[in-house]
Amino acid sequence: MTFLIAGGGIAGLGAALALSRAGRECTVFEQAPAFEEVGAGLQLGPNGVKALRALGAWEAVEPFCFAPPAIHIRDGITGNTLSRLALGPGFAARFGAPYRVIHRGDLLKALLSVAANAPNIALKTGRTVSGFSGSSLQFANGSAEPFTALIGADGIRSTIRQSLLADGPPRFAGQVICRALVPRMQMAGLEPDVTLWLCPGGHVVHYPVSGGKAMNMVAAFDGGWTSESWSQDATRDELMAAFPQACVDLRYILGIPENWRKWAGAARKAAPKWGAGNVTLMGDAAHPMLPYLAQGAVMALEDAATLGACIARQTQTDKALRQYEALRQPRTARVAAASGGLARIYHASGLMKFTRDALLRRTPNRLMLSRLDRLYVWNLRHD
Ligand SMILES: Cc1cc2nc3c(=O)[nH]c(=O)nc-3n(C[C@H](O)[C@H](O)[C@H](O)COP(=O)(O)OP(=O)(O)OC[C@H]3O[C@@H](n4cnc5c(N)ncnc54)[C@H](O)[C@@H]3O)c2cc1C
């Protein structure tokens, strides 16, 4: 049984670990000349940590993580605190796993180290997939590989999705997302919380990554700029212009990084189907979402763990893939919709901002935590 995986990002490497643990052989085809350690910070909610445990990768990932003390939401105009939710032992006990943050490159590196030691995973770089036909995976250079099962984990512009669904490219969401990484010592005095600043038309998030050595910053704002690249240059002036009402503290923070990179936020409506026969989709290929709920990578990890559990328990591969899809489609559609909806709430002005701020200030942490149950109380299922 030859499982082929198109794409060696978080979903693709996660799928390889899941299949390996289920006793299956697989080959991952990644288009980049090396497994890409680019990107910025990713948040791993407790559901992400549980998925990594199920994939047998948590021990490798944990040393790269940083444990933020709290999620701190601040008004970007006044600097005032709107809400602060502690992420300590009580939080971890409630959800069965801790909240962690990590650099995307470190997460990939850790997944790769586990995959490289698995005897039944083959990793191939510099192989650009162009789609599939029948049971043949096709490559941009004209070559092909036969498969008995195929996982399309080739990201938001998935070629496997196009072969399966032919539903065109994702739509740009009118969001510009900038990221920067700064040595922590340049930001001495900045709290180690996951800090979220809300401004009219945009928001800023920062938290330490690389085990606490660097500060990850993300600034997202409403705008019509589009590009398919993950890594375009952005200027400090562009950032400052997007946050004209920012308070002194926030302007100071935005002014620290010398180099910003940006990408254009894109998403899709939930697809009615993800697969057919022995082919399925995973991660952004199946359910791209805006990163505002910080769940894109986590959903990919949950997908991978669920796929592994279904494959391990079901001898017929097509049935296992349909089980996996049935388990994952409703949850990922809900999370993607919620993440997209946050743009309006985070970037609100006027009456909507006033109402949002009042609700954030008045909501007790106990209620805040119970609202997070639906997202973070996730347990591996296969039936
Ligand atoms: C370069 C890069 C930087 C990113 N930076 C951030 C970030 O800073 N913050 C954030 O929240 N999210 C970032 N993301 C997105 C985030 O990693 C994903 O949303 C999430 O992890 C889901 O992972 P995925 O594996 O489904 O998709 P992706 O992470 O997009 O991985 C898809 C993989 O498939 C490969 N691929 C694509 N097309 C082909 C093809 N035709 N043939 C073979 N291989 C192919 C890609 O090179 C990539 O390695 C980034 C993604 C990429 C690719």
Would you kindly provide a written description of the structure presented here, covering whatever features stand out?
The protein is an alpha/beta fold and 383 residues long. It has a single domain (3-170, 268-376), classed as FAD/NAD(P)-binding domain (3-Layer(bba) Sandwich). It has helices at residues 10-21, 46-54, 58-61, 89-95, 104-117, 159-165, 236-242, 248-255, 296-313, 317-346, 350-362, 365-376; strands spanning 3-6, 26-29, 41-44, 70-75, 81-86, 100-103, 121-124, 129-133, 136-139, 144-146, 149-152, 171-183, 194-199, 202-209, 214-222, 232-234, 260-267, 279-281. Strand 4 (70-75) and strand 5 (81-86) form a beta hairpin. Helix 1 (10-21) runs parallel beside helix 5 and helix 9 runs antiparallel to helix 10 (317-346). The chain binds flavin-adenine dinucleotide. Flavin-adenine dinucleotide binds at residues 6-12, 29-32, 36, 38-40, 42, 104, 128-129, 153-155, 159, 179, 230, 283-285, 291, 296-297, 300.
